[in-house]
Amino acid sequence: MKKVFVTGATGLLGANTIIKLLQYDYSVTALVRKKSSWMGEENENFRLIEGDLFSDISEHLQDVDAVIHIAAETSQDLLHYEDYKKTNYDAVVHLFAQAGAAGTGRFLFVSTANTLGYGNSAGWGNEEALQLYPFTHSYYAQSKLETENYLLQQNTETKVVIVNPTFMIGAYDRKPSSGKIIFWAWKKKFVFYPKGGKNFVHAEDVAEGIIKAVEKGKNGEKYLLANENLTYKEFFGKINTITGKTPVMIPIPDAGLAMLGMIGDVLRKLKIKTSLSSPNMKALRINNFYSNRKSSEELGIQYQPIDKALEDAIRFFERKNNEVRVGRPKES
C-alpha cells in the first residue's frame, strides 16, 4: 500500500483528492489546522495531524512515497506580494526540505493554470506557453510561478511533478471557494456576465489527475488539468439549464469592468482590501482558455462534462442548505 502525505485537506480539491486516494487504497496522512475541520472520520488508512505549514512534520514523512501539496493562499483581496509569498512559496520551501530530508521519493505541487499563457488566435494555452498579462500582475499567480521555478531547480533527489488546474467546480466546496461563481447566476432574476471566459474542470477530475501524476508524471514536468473552454455566458447558461431557470442575461460592458478595476486600484493604494483591481477585472474580459492534451495523453485522464460538475456542486449546496435548516451535521 502506497503512503502519501497531503496538505490542504479540507478545501474543495483536498477533500476530493483524499476521497479518491482512499478509494484507490492509498494510506493517507493529512495536515489540518484543527481535526474538527474535517467532517468525515479517520480510519486505519486515513489519519489527521494538527499543525500549520511551518510545523515540523518530519516524523510523519518517514516511509512516505509522495507528498501532495494542495494548501495555498488563494484570496484575491490581499494587498502585498508578501501576503501570498509566505504561504505559497516560503511554506513550500519548508515542506519540500522536510520531504527531502525524509527521503520522500516524489513531491506533487498543485499550482494554477494562470502561471501558463492562455489561449490566443494561434491556439489554446499549454504547458509550454509563457505567462501573460493580467496574470503577470497577479500576486497569487506570481507566487505560484516563483514556487514552480524553485521546485524545478531542486528536483534532483526528490522528484517534482507540477499540476496546473484551471477553474474547478464540484462537490465538497464547503466555504464555498470557486463555487461562489454558481451563486452569481443561481436563483437570480437578472444575471450580469462579463464578456470573457474560462476553462472549467470537474474537481473530481483534478483529484484523479493528481493521483495519475503521482503514479505516472515525469520528473520536472507540468500538466494542465483542464477541460471545457466556455464564455461566462455559456457557463451561466448551463447553470440555468440545470436549475430550470430563465433569468434575463445582461452583458457587463468592458468599460464598466475597466472602471471598477481602476476604483479597486485606488482602494488598494489606500490600504483597503478588495478583490477589485485592474488585473482582476481584465481577467474577466479575456478568454482564459487552455488545452488538456498533454494530461489526457500522458496521464490517461478522461474528463467529465462540466454539466456533471455543476450538477454535483449544486446538489452538494442544496444538501448543505437542507442540513442547516433541519439542524443536521454537515457532510465533508
Automatic annotation (TrEMBL):
Classification via PANTHER family: NAD(P)-BINDING DOMAIN-CONTAINING PROTEIN-RELATED, PROTEIN YEEZ
Matching Pfam families: Epimerase
InterPro entries: Epimerase_deHydtase, NAD(P)-bd_dom_sf, NAD(P)-dependent_oxidoreduct
Top-rank taxon, per record: Bacteria
Span of domain NAD-dependent epimerase/dehydratase: 4-224
Protein name per UniProt: Nucleoside-diphosphate-sugar epimerase
Organism: Chryseobacterium lathyri
